[in-house]
Amino acid sequence: MGQVGCRDSRRPPRPQRVRAASVARRRETSGSHRAASGSHKASFQGSYNPQAGYNPTAAKPKRGNRGLLIGCGIVVVLLLLCVGGVAAALIAGGGSFSFSTTPGVIEAATARTVKDARPDQSATTFAPRESMYITYKINKAKVGDTLELRVFRNGARIPLTGGEHTLTNSGTIYGADSFVPTEAGSYRVEFYYAGESSPSKTLDFTVQ
Predict the structure, then answer these.
(1) Which of 125, 132, 102 shows the shortest CA–CA distance to 184?
(2) pTM tops 0.85
(3) Closest to 186 (Cα-Cα) out of 140, 164, 155, 165
(4) Domains of the chain by range and CATH?
(5) For the segment 139-174, what is each residue's pLDDT rounded down to a tens digit?
């Protein structure tokens, strides 16, 4: 009886050990599972964090600004090309250009040939007795207004036949007067519109 009782008293510890082991295993399993879960979560967050700071709506203004800058750059280039083209044309033609909105002669140039009363082959140097043209553009012309051309050679006025005109049209008018210089020298043309006391436009050319 005593032995049996002793054996019975010794048996309980074994299940306790087994239970403790199983508990330990469960704890280890749970810990490993948590660790695995934690490592999975950490790796997931690590790969996602860089994109967490990315904001698609914040990137749109950058694209818009880039397009705006490109558009502004194109406009500036076009303006420069236009200004450069006008300057080159004026230099080549020896004429002048104005944005004036007042009535009068706003453009003038000399040419060897014309087309529709406008310079076709512009030039500023001619030979004696070479036929040439004095062209001009009148802004805001009115019917009945007058235009007088005065020609000077080396500072002295020379007689000019047909240098006075009475306008029969209104608005913007282009004109071309033929002229044949007989002597070499430095020439100057003055344009007087509607009885002006001083010329609204002047033009220089050379005969040699």
Answers:
(1) 125
(2) no
(3) 155
(4) 96-207 (2.60.40.770)
(5) 999 999 999 999 999 999 999 889 999 999 999 999
